[in-house]
């Protein structure tokens, strides 16, 4: 699944629905890209989830995932009540059928398997954001062996 050239909605499942927004943007080469963003840093106790569409492994025994993302530097946000996060967790779940839809999905760590906590090497501040200089991070992780889709 390669979303780098997607021009239409990606159709991922988000929770809470009011937290995530799918938007079009530009990469560092000014190519149009589809992204998800969550910017509710002023709300306490955030627990934002984003699930890809079902991925058929087609016989693969290991998954390699490349994630490209930006992170806002929490210290650049004045008066944030401690709910700003600069990391996220990557999970996976093996199944042979679709388990997540917009109306039903698992929104807690169980039954997913944690791959890693992902942190940005570079973040952007308000000054950078005003100048539209987003620092894009790329992280690659692999996991397996897989026996189901």
TrEMBL record:
Localization in the cell: Membrane
PROSITE patterns: EPH_LBD
Pfam family of the protein (one): Ephrin_lbd
Primary localization: membrane
Keyword Transmembrane appears in the UniProt entry: no
Keywords from the UniProt entry: ATP-binding, Membrane, Nucleotide-binding, Receptor
Topology in membrane: Single-pass membrane protein
A molecular-function term among this protein's GO annotations: ATP binding
SMART domains in UniProt: EPH_lbd
InterPro entries: Ephrin_rcpt_lig-bd_dom, Ephrin_rcpt_TKs, Galactose-bd-like_sf
GO CC field: membrane
Domain Eph LBD stretches: 1-149
Protein name (database record): EPH receptor B1
Source organism per UniProt: Homo sapiens
Highest classification ranks of the organism: Eukaryota, Metazoa, Chordata, Craniata, Vertebrata
Gene assigned in the entry: EPHB1
């Amino acid at each position: 699944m390669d979303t780098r050239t997607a021009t239409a909605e990606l159709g991922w499942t988000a929770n809470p629905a009011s937290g995530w927004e799918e938007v079009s943007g530009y990469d560092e080469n000014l190519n149009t890209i589809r992204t998800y963003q969550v910017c509710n840093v002023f709300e306490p106790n955030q627990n934002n989830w984003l699930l890809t569409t079902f991925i058929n492994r087609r016989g693969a025994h290991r998954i390699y995932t490349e994630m490209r993302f930006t992170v806002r530097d929490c210290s650049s946000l004045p008066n944030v009540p401690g709910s700003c996060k600069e990391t996220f967790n990557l999970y996976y779940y093996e199944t042979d059928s679709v388990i997540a839809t917009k109306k039903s999905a698992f929104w807690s760590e169980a039954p997913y398997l944690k791959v890693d906590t992902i942190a940005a090497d570079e973040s952007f501040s308000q000054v950078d954001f005003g100048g539209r200089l987003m620092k894009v991070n790329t992280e690659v992780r692999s996991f397996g062996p897989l026996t189901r889709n």
